[in-house]
Amino acid sequence: VQLQASGGGLVQAGGSLRLSCAVSGSRISLNEMGWYRQAPGKQREMVALITSGGATDYVDFVKGRFTISRGNAKNTVNLQMNSLTPEDTAVYYCYARQFYVEHWGQGTLVTVSS
User: Tell me: the pLDDT tens digits for 26-63?
Assistant: First the structure.
């Protein structure tokens, strides 16, 4: 199973970015997909998750600003990020879980300038 993330980049505070992740190598639907992030000097933290049934979960500091959704293609997930702040600067990692096995993407850098 491989996860390919895209969409990171540099944006000014208040701007928006959209991250996408496509999972290949899995013949069955994944139980859960989502995004984590790791800022410099900090631990990796959950940002948003979505289950195969469409249930979503967000960390408090992104609620109302970020939206996670399943893509039209099987085993794809998107993260729409609005009202970005410099505190959102981090490497964002795509995540997928198939039963009890976790898979991670290579990370995409999001930099928000003030």
Answer: 777 788 999 999 999 999 999 999 999 999 999 999 99
Which residues contact residue 103 at a Cβ distance below 8 angstroms, ignoring those fewer than 6 apart? Answer: 1, 2, 3, 23, 95, 96, 97
Calpha distance 69→72 (Å, rounded) = 9
Residue 75 has pLDDT above 90, yes or no: no
Which phi and psi angles does 86 have, rounded to 5°? Answer: -55, -25
Which amino acid, residue 95?
Answer: Y
Q: What is the 3-state secondary structure (H, E, C) of 2-66?
A: EEEEECCEEEECCCCEEEEEEEECCCCCCCEEEEEEECCCCCCEEEEEEECCCCEEECHHHCCCE
Mean pLDDT of 90-103: 94
Which among 65, 44, 67, 70 has a CA at the least distance from the CA of 57? 67
